[in-house]
Automatic annotation (TrEMBL):
Pfam families: BON
Annotated stretches, region: Disordered: 220-279
InterPro entries for the chain: BON_dom, Lipoprotein_DolP, Transpt-assoc_nodulatn_dom_bac
Protein name in the entry: Transport-associated protein
Low complexity bias locations: 235-265
Alphabetized UniProt keyword annotations: Signal
Length: 279
């Protein structure tokens, strides 16, 4: 007599046969999900790289000077962070081999030591020391400063007559520092834009001024332009010029403008410190 399988056993056998196929399907879905996530994560990196290339192309500094600036910043920050850990919080910003020091030091002795060290670096042609002396330096990153820097940058990009890619913005406790290679009128326009950004306490100018003819020559050597989004403005903030050792007036300078000892971007003849791998 032939024994027929009951319906319950038959269904169980069919389900068992489908399990490998279901497992493969689930595995494929999981793999596709991971791949999509990884590709999505790669996009900001690729986009950032493309944006970096555009910035390099439109910067008035020679490519070699941009490379020196990055190496100088890395060298100074790495040394200061290890040497004065717990005694100071120092942010190093470099543009056209001009070094801006912002942050906090526990006393005047530490502040002076930091400044002297940076002045002794071969590729630093000028140091602007804006370190604040406080008894207990704060090592908490201020997200508000980052937001202000981003907002001012966006406003400069959309402003008429401002070479935004030739201007570096640094914010410390609401004080905005402007470095860059500009003509006196461009510097005044950039300063006016920055001081009208909401949240800005004060604007400090640390520009390198060039003539209109020199600016035109530098711009002619650059390629590529970008059109960024809009930004909002706020109550105008006071303006201050960063102290400098010597500051002869630039040709055709606007009233009140202060020029740097070097009036155009230069490429340092000094090689970068050995053993440093630039990004």
């Amino acid at each position: 007599m032939t024994t027929l399988p009951n319906s319950r056993e038959s269904r169980a056998a069919r389900l068992t046969g489908h399990l490998p196929r279901l497992a493969r399907t689930a595995t494929m879905v999981a793999a596709l999900t991971v791949a999509a996530t990884q590709l999505a994560g790669c996009f900001p990196v690729i986009a950032a790289g493309m944006a970096g290339g555009v910035t390099m192309a439109t910067d008035r500094r020679p490519t070699a000077t941009q490379t020196i600036d990055r190496g100088l910043q890395l060298e100074a920050e790495n040394t200061l962070n290890s040497r004065y850990n717990g005694q100071a919080r120092v942010s190093v910003s470099v543009f056209n081999r001009k070094v801006l020091l912002t942050g906090e030091a526990k006393d005047s002795t530490v502040k002076q030591q930091i400044e002297q060290y940076v002045k002794g670096l071969p590729n630093a042609r000028e140091v602007v020391d804006e370190l604040e002396i406080v008894s207990s330096p704060s090592f908490v990153t201020q997200s508000q400063d980052t937001f202000i820097t981003s907002k001012v940058k966006t406003m400069l990009v959309t402003a008429d007559g401002v070479p935004s890619n030739s201007i570096k913005i640094v914010t410390e406790k609401g004080v905005v520092y402007l470095l860059g290679v500009v003509t006196p009128p461009e510097g005044e326009r950039a300063t006016d834009v920055a001081r009208n950004a909401s949240g800005v306490v004060k604007v400090v100018k640390a520009f390198d001024y060039v003539t209109e003819a020199e600016a035109a020559r530098l711009d002619a050597a650059a390629t590529g332009r970008t059109t960024p989004p809009d930004a909002t403005s706020g109550t105008p903030a006071p303006v201050q010029t960063a102290p400098s050792q010597t500051a002869p007036a630039a040709p055709n300078a606007a009233a009140g403008a202060t020029a740097s000892p070097v009036t155009s971007p230069v490429t340092s003849p000094v090689a970068l410190p050995p053993g440093r791998n630039l990004p």
